UniProtKB/TrEMBL annotation:
<dbReference type="InterPro" id="IPR020846">
    <property type="entry name" value="MFS_dom"/>
</dbReference>
<feature type="transmembrane region" description="Helical">
    <location>
        <begin position="114"/>
        <end position="135"/>
    </location>
</feature>
<keyword id="KW-1003">Cell membrane</keyword>
<feature type="transmembrane region" description="Helical">
    <location>
        <begin position="209"/>
        <end position="229"/>
    </location>
</feature>
<feature type="transmembrane region" description="Helical">
    <location>
        <begin position="177"/>
        <end position="197"/>
    </location>
</feature>
<feature type="transmembrane region" description="Helical">
    <location>
        <begin position="244"/>
        <end position="261"/>
    </location>
</feature>
<feature type="transmembrane region" description="Helical">
    <location>
        <begin position="147"/>
        <end position="165"/>
    </location>
</feature>
<keyword id="KW-0812">Transmembrane</keyword>
<keyword id="KW-1133">Transmembrane helix</keyword>
<feature type="transmembrane region" description="Helical">
    <location>
        <begin position="371"/>
        <end position="396"/>
    </location>
</feature>
<feature type="transmembrane region" description="Helical">
    <location>
        <begin position="417"/>
        <end position="436"/>
    </location>
</feature>
<dbReference type="Pfam" id="PF07690">
    <property type="entry name" value="MFS_1"/>
</dbReference>
<feature type="transmembrane region" description="Helical">
    <location>
        <begin position="317"/>
        <end position="339"/>
    </location>
</feature>
<dbReference type="InterPro" id="IPR011701">
    <property type="entry name" value="MFS"/>
</dbReference>
<feature type="transmembrane region" description="Helical">
    <location>
        <begin position="21"/>
        <end position="41"/>
    </location>
</feature>
<dbReference type="InterPro" id="IPR004638">
    <property type="entry name" value="EmrB-like"/>
</dbReference>
<feature type="region of interest" description="Disordered">
    <location>
        <begin position="539"/>
        <end position="558"/>
    </location>
</feature>
Length: 558
């Protein structure tokens, strides 16, 4: 399968020096922070938001819609970035994110909020994928650990800064500012990226995989609809329900069509031959199960703190700081260790084992527990995740053709986000189902219409605090008893990831940046008058490392 990309012949090679690298890296970090922050910033504000907009039963969709949109957008940005260059897709992603943040803050109904969260995800998916691909473009894999470590720490910071900032804004100017705060930051990030990201653009003669895009988007949506069936208001999985059967059958058909199309088109959205690459397959499966466990856990912990531990909205954000410390510590340390030793397999293995221990420990959550004990629990969880996230991305990027860095990175992340969407939907379905049953027991015996918060759908932390005893204690215990056992559902998933990590093959880290390998750039100090043949030779050398097979390449001197 050819992958013909033509670069503009009238432009010079990009010269990569340390100043250029740090300038681009800074612009990417600012934009990535926006995207990752919005996966968690609504966490602490969630009880207030869904209580005010009357959407407690469907609260998982505020997070699921964002993650689902990210999953759909990722392969598009990855493929188009490889074909046409990453600069303009990146700017489009930032713009979408800013517009959606403005709309989300103005939402007057739960349905409108979910819709704007989906648009946010369409922008956020581009920020995450293109940032990771651009880093691979400008920094060799042998040095990338030093940069991937801070990027992993950034995800850890946002995982906790999001709930903290969300709590402070909810207590202060109001929950709508959890969206509006992105607008000035996003505008600044757009202008920084416009001037800093001087990246090459391409012309491609490959046709767009419209069939793959359509079936991927619809199939992904169908998967999430199935896993969210109960949270959509349906009373369990009644397999005599023709609507449920239609969704199941339609999803299966769409997935089958996607596989059929991807095996036949000239330029597939997600090339299935990538799965012949052992490293890609194993790390993708690890990302899938980790996404199912990681995002599910992070999404509901602030709700537990507010509803069961009696923490205020801002306080619940502060209480998530130990998780940030764990992620930052292990992410940065592992990044530098990988750059120094050139070895990376041990980190996801140890990280997944630690994550399992953290998940098991979280099954002991209970109302009124020691917050120091809670902090220790989430520190262990964060420490495990910090060893995994960026390491598996580095492993994928190091094992594929330099021309497919964006496609491979986005495909790997796509399955992680699918896992996150499915895991969050399933986890919140289990949680809300148990919570509904628990609250019915708490409010049993009250006169009709006398149950506070509409019997549960309108409960907010402030309303719970005002409840008389024994109702208040009953509600607190109902939340804790619904959440803690649900973590047992996540433990087997992460255990599968640990077994897979044991079979991960360690490939020698490349000493060439992606753009250099493709003949689009030279490192400062290299011969300024390098011939086009030298660039093509560099590409050929890089392709010989590709575990999925060589690619035919047509590169013209820029």
């Amino acid at each position: 399968m050819s992958h013909a990309v033509t670069t503009a012949p009238d432009k010079p090679l990009v010269v990569l020096n340390q100043r250029t690298i740090w300038l681009i890296f800074g612009a990417l970090m600012a934009s990535m922070f926006l995207s990752s922050l919005d996966q968690t910033i609504v966490g602490t504000a969630m009880p207030t938001i869904v209580g005010e907009l009357n959407g407690v039963e469907h609260q998982g969709w505020v997070i699921t819609a964002y993650i689902l949109a990210i999953a759909i957008a990722m392969p598009l940005y990855g493929k188009f970035g490889d074909l046409y260059g990453r600069r303009w897709p990146f700017l489009v992603a930032v713009g979408l994110f800013v517009v959606a943040s403005l709309g989300g803050g103005m939402a007057q109904s739960f349905e409108a909020l979910v819709a704007w969260r989906a648009v946010q995800g369409l922008g956020g998916g581009g920020l995450m994928i293109l940032s990771q691909a651009i880093i691979a473009d400008i920094i060799p894999a042998s040095d990338r650990g030093k940069y991937m470590g801070p990027m992993g720490a950034l995800f850890g910071i946002s995982a906790v800064a999001g709930p903290l900032l969300g709590g402070w804004l909810t207590d202060g100017p109001g929950w709508r500012w959890t969206f509006w705060i992105n607008v000035p930051i996003g505008i600044a990030a757009w202008f920084i990226a416009y001037f800093a990201l001087k990246l090459p653009s391409h012309r491609s003669n490959r046709p767009t995989d419209l069939g793959g895009i359509l079936t991927m988007a619809l199939g992904t949506t169908g998967i999430v609809l199935l896993t969210s069936w109960e949270s959509l208001g349906h009373d369990g999985y009644d397999w005599s329900d023709p609507t449920l059967l239609a969704v199941l059958l339609g999803t299966a058909v769409l997935v089958g069509l996607f596989i059929f199309i991807e095996n036949r088109v000239a330029e597939p959205l997600i090339p299935l031959r990538l799965f012949k690459n052992r490293t890609f397959t194993i790390t993708t499966l690890i990302g899938l199960v980790l996404g199912m466990g990681m995002f599910s856990a992070m999404a509901m912990l602030p709700t537990f703190l507010q509803m069961s531990a009696g923490a205020g909205v801002t306080e619940s954000g502060l209480l998530m700081l130990p998780m940030m410390a764990g992620v930052m510590l292990t992410s940065i340390a592992s990044g530098f260790a990988i750059s120094k030793t050139g070895r990376y397999k041990m980190f996801p293995v140890v990280g997944l084992a630690v994550t399992i221990l953290g998940m098991i420990w979280l099954t002991r959550l209970e109302g009124g527990m020691s917050l120091w004990l809670f902090g220790a629990m989430i520190f262990v969880l964060g420490a495990g995740m910090g060893l995994i996230m960026q390491t598996i991305v580095l492993a994928v990027q190091n094992s594929v053709d330099p021309h497919e860095l964006g496609t491979a990175t986005s495909s790997n992340n796509f399955f992680r986000e699918i896992g996150a969407a499915v895991g969050t939907a399933a986890f919140t379905t289990v949680f809300t189902s148990r919570l509904t049953d628990n609250l019915q027991g708490v409010f049993e015996g009250l006169p009709e219409g006398a149950a506070p918060g509409g019997g549960g759908s309108g409960l907010t932390p402030q309303l719970v605090e005002q409840l008389p005893e024994p109702l208040r204690s009953g509600v607190v215990d109902a939340f804790a008893d619904a959440l803690a056992p649900a973590f047992w559902y996540l433990v087997p998933l992460v255990a599968i990831g640990l077994v897979l990590a044991l079979f991960l093959k360690e490939v020698k880290l490349s000493d060439q940046a992606g753009m250099v390998a493709r003949g689009e750039a030279v490192m400062e100090g290299a011969a300024a008058d390098a011939e086009p043949a030298d660039a093509v030779a560099a590409v050929g050398a890089a392709e010989s490392r590709d575990a999925s097979g060589p690619q035919e390449t047509d590169i013209l001197r820029r």
